[in-house]
Design goal:
heterodimer, A: 312 residues, alpha/beta, Rossmann fold, two-stranded antiparallel sheet, 11 helices, 36% helix, 18% strand, globular, B: 272 residues, eight-stranded mixed β-sheet, two-stranded antiparallel ribbon, Mrp/NBP35_ATP-bd (chain A), iron (chain A), ATP-binding (chain A), 4Fe-4S (chain A), iron-sulfur (chain A)
Chain lengths: 312, 272
């Protein structure tokens, strides 16, 4: 049985014989070396709160939620918010933030994030691609390298909230971001799901991943939770919670359910236009759900003072 | 001397291999793979599904065989048969996990090793179609799968998208992947294309409309059709039921049946 790529036994246990990953694990190739770790710590010193947005499942609304969380937190002009998109193959954040076609500029102090507002900066591989047809066909190690650069070379400045949007799964990107961010303090992960078992079965794995790497879970958001027909006002369960939805899963696994968000056609439209759904449809039930969830996340971060006690 | 004779490849009996790709997650790759397999089965074909999504394997549950085990034979792994008549067989990491909620937290090289095994070591026997269901993206799994399948000359790839621009944006990149790897694009499916309220029949375009069709036109590839959101389809997948057999009057049925027919027509044209 694999001891785990992050464990002290990685690459050295009896079970590792014959595993093609053995050398990489044994040489600790996956973890940053001490000099790099120091560099990352220095760069991330001025980040007060870090939130990872995860799922196991694709297409449940991670990027949508990350974008709205960023807008929601940045509504307080006194706060500085950063949104980092580490989905290297499918970077959705530039489009959702209305920043398609923007490029990254270099300065003496590093790469400049692309600013949506004065207090909301964004970074994504999307800004490094010259055409919307460009594919990033990279294996794991190259993706890890770029993620490290995003953390080391981007001049974020002083940030109150760093939000990290991730691709679906439990692989290179997820291991790397947790390892690289160990140089700073991660407040926790927000896990997104939809109500049906096909999603939940992947999300349980993501929760298991968080437990394995000791990443605190702020809570779970159940997205696409019901649809109210605009004409007859009847509700349909398009993605039916056949096994009890996120509510039952959260009860079973003892994690917090932050809220449920219904389907609203305006959400997709706003994402496609690069506008904030919260501003475009302030009266939508989905907007109040999102706002409540964002508030709960803010409260969680405010209570979490342990970063002030971290030993640098 | 006998030990030096080349073994018959496990894919030698497979007539057509096709991949189901997207760039985007959650658009319905596994759903389309499943429904395509069920439709082809109803046309009398023998079908296998190879699920190379190692982090989020959805296929076993969609056929209600998530608790099955994989056995070995002389030629390798025996695929899991969905029912007695053995017309659909599956392979997925889902069958190899001791605890279904355990995360498979593997970096690229380990994923690549298992995918090579999945391609070479599953004793499929004779199949009309092998459908390869993939995770979202253009990374290790995709590169390794295409490389491992190349000697067996896959028929091509079906690309699945939802209508909205955010999805189409990722699928454009997947089209580039296909071009760069020499994988023929059989067509694009626009999934979750509209929802007809079962109470009042009002159609709402929850995830917008038309993006998949426009992309097919832009890229010069066939458009295989729009599949609407259908709660009966979602329910069937949840329960591992045969949607094609049980819900022929359902709103998604015509589109799904048409996709399968276009694939069959394509292969019969090829052989004539």
């Amino acid at each position: 049985d694999c001891p785990g790529t992050g464990s002290a036994q990685a690459g050295r246990a009896a079970a590792c014989q014959g595993c093609p990953n053995r050398r990489l694990c044994a040489t600790g190739g996956a973890a940053p070396d001490p000099a790099e770790a120091a560099e990352l710590r220095e760069r991330l010193r001025s980040v007060k709160h870090t939130i990872l947005v995860l799922s196991g499942k694709g297409g449940v609304g991670k990027s949508t939620f990350s974008a709205l969380l960023a807008h929601g937190l940045a509504a307080d002009e006194a706060k500085q918010v950063a949104l980092l998109d580490i989905d290297i193959c499918g970077p959705s954040i530039p489009k959702m933030m209305g920043l398609e076609g923007e490029q990254v500029h270099q300065s003496g102090s590093g790469w400049s994030p692309v600013y949506v507002e004065e207090n909301l900066g964004v970074m994504s591989v999307g800004f490094l691609l010259s055409s919307p047809d460009d594919a990033v066909i990279w294996r794991g190690p190259k993706k890890n390298g770029l993620i490290k650069q995003f953390l080391r070379d981007v001049d974020w400045g002083e940030i109150d909230y760093l939000i990290v949007d991730t691709p679906p799964g439990t692989s290179d990107e997820h291991l790397s971001i947790v390892q690289y961010l160990s140089a700073t303090h991660i407040d926790g992960a927000v896990i997104i799901t939809t109500p049906q078992e096909v999603s939940l079965q992947d999300v349980r794995k993501e929760i298991n991943f968080c437990q394995k790497v000791k990443l605190p879970i702020i809570g779970v958001v159940e997205n696409m939770s019901g649809f109210i027909c605009p004409k007859c006002k009847n509700e349909s369960q398009i993605f039916p919670p056949t096994t009890g939805g996120a509510e039952k899963m959260c009860q079973n696994l003892n994690v917090s359910l932050l809220g449920k968000v219904p389907l609203d056609p305006q959400i997709g439209k706003s994402c496609d236009k690069g506008q904030s759904f919260l501003s475009e449809a302030p009266e939508s039930p989905a907007t109040s759900s999102y706002r409540n969830i964002i508030q709960r996340i803010q409260e969680y971060c405010d209570q979490d003072h342990s970063h002030e006690e971290k030993i640098i | 001397l006998l030990s030096f004779l080349p073994e018959r490849s496990n894919l030698a009996g497979v007539r057509h291999i096709l991949l189901v790709l997207s760039g985007k997650g959650g658009v319905g790759k596994s759903t389309i793979s499943t429904e395509l397999a069920l439709s082809l089965r109803h046309s009398g074909k023998k079908v296998g599904i190879l699920d190379v999504d190692l982090c989020g394997p959805s296929i076993p549950r969609m056929f209600r065989v998530q608790d099955s085990d994989v056995h070995q034979c002389d030629s390798g792994w025996v695929p899991v048969f969905v029912d007695q008549d053995k017309s659909i067989s599956l392979m997925s990491i889902g069958f190899l996990l001791e605890k279904p909620d355990d995360a498979v937290v593997w970096r690229g090289p380990k994923k690549n090793a298992l995918i090579k095994q999945f391609v070479a070591d599953v004793a499929w026997g004779d199949l009309d179609f092998l459908i390869v269901d993939t995770p979202p993206g253009t990374s290790d799994e995709h590169i390794s799968t295409v490389e491992a399948l190349r000697p067996y000359k896959p028929l091509g790839a079906i690309l699945v998208t939802t209508p909205q621009a955010v999805s189409v944006g990722d699928v454009r990149r997947e089209l580039t992947f296909c071009k760069k790897t020499g994988l023929r694009v059989l067509g694009i499916v626009e999934n979750m294309s509209g929802f007809v309220c079962p109470h009042c029949s009002e159609c709402t375009n929850i995830f917008s409309k038309g993006g998949g069709e426009e992309l097919a036109k832009y890229a010069g590839v066939p458009f295989l059709g729009c599949v609407p959101l259908d709660p009966q389809l979602s329910q069937s997948l949840e329960e591992g039921r045969d949607f094609i057999q049980e819900f022929p009057k359902s709103s998604a049925f015509p589109a799904l049946a048409s996709i399968a027919q276009q694939i069959l027509d394509g292969t019969s044209q090829q052989s004539s």
